[in-house]
Please model this.
Amino acid sequence: MAVPKLQFACDHADLPSALADAGKVGDVVDILEAGTILLLQEGRKAIQCLRAMFPDKIIVADPKCADAGAVVAANCGSAGADFMTVICAASLPTMKAAAKEVKEVQVELFGDWTFEQAETWLDAGITQAIYHQSRDALAAGGGWGEKDLEKVRRLADMGFGVSVTGGLKPETLRLFEGVDVYAFIAGRAISAEPDPRRAASDFQEEIHRIWG
Ligand code: 5RP
Model:
């Protein structure tokens, strides 16, 4: 089982604060993400700036694309993104079209989706999924538990590289011990800390303690 990667989601409301935090943690994390919130605020410039700052890192664009997959993915790819997210409700043609324009499409698993659908994504050559606890569901009292672990394990067994996200903290990661996770994606638990670099290092130390 590979050691999971650490992805920093820049969900900032403006580009200067996103880039300031990315600069603090960029060499500690494995993947940098132009998050949905940042993309809506600042657009492709966010991807371009992350790519310029980190030419050798994996850069993810997280538009949670629902339609016009080819155009959106081409725009993200030409700005410098390696990976782009599509929402699980998107049609297969949208996902397939997007997959031609970036190195990897990642299916964001929110709300209603089925393992039968997931098989069709694999058949289409899409092998990355993001198991997501939504910010709003967490705020309404949700949390991580065995029900989530079962789904993450099953997706990994099917052949997906599964990233996990939503309100993660370093102490949440021990729940996933023994599970084949591609990347842990953290936003606020890094950017909202007084020392984001220390917070990112705490995640990496916990990942390496458990999977190293
Ligand atoms: C929200 C997202 C976030 O970028 C991701 O879940 C990380 O957020 P946080 O760690 O702050 O909960 O995709 O839809």
Notes: The chain is about 45% helix and 20% strand. The radius of gyration is 16 Å. Strands lie at 5-10, 31-34, 58-65, 83-87, 104-109, 128-132, 161-165, 183-186.
